Amino acid sequence: MECLGEKDGQAARVLFEVVDYYDEERQFSAMERTTGWHASIAAIMMAQGQTPIGAKPLEIAVPGSSFVNEMRRRGIALTEKLSWLPS
Predict the structure, then answer these.
(1) Cα 80 to chain center, whole Å?
(2) Which pairing describes strands 10-19 and 77-84: parallel, antiparallel, or unpaired?
(3) Do 83 and 12 form a contact (C-beta atoms < 8 A)?
């Protein structure tokens, strides 16, 4: 996923890459892990009051850094590449 915006007041581009494989131990496919687990992370955050109440787009409602940490905690390899853009 590519994100364009600002970081520390400067135009920036962040590229997130997820690579996942079949989980032999739990017998979950990479597709199950990368589609189902993010929904459960968001649901847990909602239940714990970490998201705003009401209907909001996921990318606005869920705190990005917490989400990434939870994905990594579950063994999903996620890399992040930041590059600065000309102003």
Answers:
(1) 10
(2) antiparallel
(3) yes
* Total domains, the chain: 1
Strand partners, 3: 14
Distance CA 84, CA 14 (A): 9
In angstroms, rounded to a whole number, what is the distance separating the alpha carbons of residues 62 and 59? Answer: 6
Burial of 28 (0-12, 13-18, 19+ CB in 10 A): middle
Looking at residues 46-74, what average pLDDT do you find?
Answer: 91
Domain assignment of residue 76, given as a range: 2-84
Residue range 3-29: average pLDDT? Answer: 93
Give me the amino acid identity at 77: A
Average pLDDT score over residue span 54-75: 90
